[in-house]
Amino acid sequence: MIKSISRRRALVAGGATLALGGIGWSQIGRAYAQGDVKDGGRLKGVLRFTGAAPAEDSVSISKDSHICGVGEVNPNPLTIGADGALKDGVVALRKVEAGKPWPAAMTQPKIDQKRCLFEPFVQVAPKGAELTIVNHDPLLHNIHTYEQIGRARRTLFNIAQPMAGQTDIAPLKVRRGFVVEIDCDAHNWMSAWIYTADHPYVAATDADGLFDITDVPPGNHELVMWHPILGEVTREITLAAGETLDLSLDMKA
Amino acid sequence: MKLASLLFTGLALIFAALVQFALTKHAVAQYVSPDPQALAHGQELYARECSACHGAEGEGDGPGAKYLSQRPRNLTLGVFKIRSTPTGEFPTAQDLFDSITHGLAGSNGAQMPSFASLSEADRWALVEVVRTFAWMDKEGAPVTVPPRPETVNLELGRQVYERLQCAACHGDEGDGDGASSLTLKDDDRRRIFAASLVSGSYKGGDAPEEVWTRFYTGLDGSPMPSYAGRASHEELWALTEYLLTLRAEAGASQEEKQ
User: Fold this and answer.
1) Quick one: A8 and A103 in the same domain?
2) Which residue, among B87, B129, B159, would best test binding to A if mutated, counting the most A CBs under 10 Å from its CB?
3) The domain containing residue B230 runs over which residues?
């Protein structure tokens, strides 16, 4: 009941600020301001996994073996390289209101379905970006994207691609969260993730666990580490003008 | 004079900070009902008619929810199966009104009853409540269903069923036993089964136009994807006629047996 009142109040307050401020719907959730970064710093380093690996999930490839092969697949693998280097992690700043423009390469996310697997497994993209989806397999895949909101998830879109060569473009209309989960209902071992951000200070780690984020506005930032099965960890960092921070970050199960 | 202007600036700054706070706290566009009176009336009705299943806050967690084989919709997420709008879009207000009016009865026994006994004004008031729960600031744009062709091409419909691989979930005979039906999950990660297309009633209505729309827009929140652009409008009509015919035949043979 308390929640109900607070939500109603929030609605009323929201309406009042809108009316008083004369702000349109589309401008809510202030846009990230793109521009030159003065005395930008750099965040680079390695993300590692420490501790005991969690139990591996395993799903049988139960159909379409002429394309998908046979055996067992871990839909959400923990890929660890030398010295605990964690692939498919994401390193991001939580909130940046103004900074460098989005590099063009980051604004065109794409996902391929090949031999009944998604490629890539983890990538980053701007919130609202148009995702290009390609089916390379001569059978039905359905690209089903969800926004994660706490423990809940909500469908963003779900598009059938029954033939090889079919391409769709659809927006990642994330409303409240950051994480987009992707699966294929026709093949329950297929899984992929997109970490969406309001600003370009976000990177997916490579096979060596490395990340490199440049032109970061100096100051205090909340740093987020995320991985599909390890969840999210945050810590505070301080970046001086023009400073390069070489970070060694850890995630545990 | 100086003091007054200082005071004014101070107040303006405080106001700006408040606006900023409100906006960052609720980054989602906020839906404010255009008709506060209808909303207030709807909230009373909702508490009486809907909250036992959908929960006081619309989160699908009312006291009755645990007794249902399929979880009542979490209305705060803004995702609805029965829409006239493309996948990923909000439903129209009319879609919500229709679901409230007709209820949702599918082949797997979903239990949302019809609320046609409520007055039209009451049902529209409930639409406002649902839109507010999900902060639906706008309606999706409905797709236009092309007119039903006068000629029926069942063979084409059968070919489309095959080409679109409907059987992967719904099975070769359309009774919901395809290979992938065994592993389907809904948005809540709960087990869900592919609907039988040849028995019972369709969740989104049995009218041919409604069936056509389900293929075109998909059923968001369930594994059923949108087939927009995957077959021509005529082919989707042939598919519609094919399934309606299969269902009518299955129904007839069922009656013969009894």
Assistant:
1) no
2) B87
3) 154-257
Q: Evaluate whether B224 touches B214 at the Cβ level (below 8 Å).
A: yes
Handedness of CA B161, B162, B166, B169 (dihedral sign): positive
Quick: pLDDT tens for B112-154.
999 999 999 999 999 999 999 999 988 899 999 999 999 999 9
Q: Which residues 6+ apart lie within 8 Å of B254 measured at CB?
A: B199
Cα gap B244→B169, rounded to integer Å:
18
Which residues of chain B have a CB within 8 Å of the CB of A165? none
**Nearest chain A residue (CA) to B39:** A8
| Residue whose structure tokens are 């963003």 | A156
8 Å CB contact between A104 and A128:
no
Residues sharing a CB contact under 8 Å with residue B100, sequence separation 6 or more, in sequence order:
B115, B118, B123, B126, B127
CA atoms within 13 A on the CB side of B189: 8
Q: In terms of DSSP H, where are the helices of B33-189?
A: 36-49, 51-54, 93-102, 120-133, 154-163, 167-170
Question: Residue A249: what are its φ and ψ, rounded to 5°?
Answer: -110, 145
CATH number of the domain residue B72 falls in: 1.10.760.10
Residue type, B32: V
Give strand pairing partners of A195: A124, A179
Between helix B93-102 and helix B120-133 the angle, nearest 10°, is 120
Query: Of B82, B102, B133, which residue sits at a domain end?
Result: B133
Closest CA to A192 of A112, A129, A86, A251: A112
CB A226 within 8 Å of CB A90: yes
Q: What is the pLDDT of residues B155-198, one digit of tens each?
A: 999 999 999 999 999 999 999 999 999 999 999 999 999 999 99
Structure tokens at B12: 């303006």
Give the range of the structural domain holding residue A20, as residue numbers without chain letter: 1-30
Nearest residue of B to residue A187, measured between CA atoms: B180
Neighbours of A246 (CB within 10 A): 9
pLDDT tens-digit profile of B66-111?
Answer: 888 788 999 999 999 999 999 999 999 999 999 999 999 876 666 7
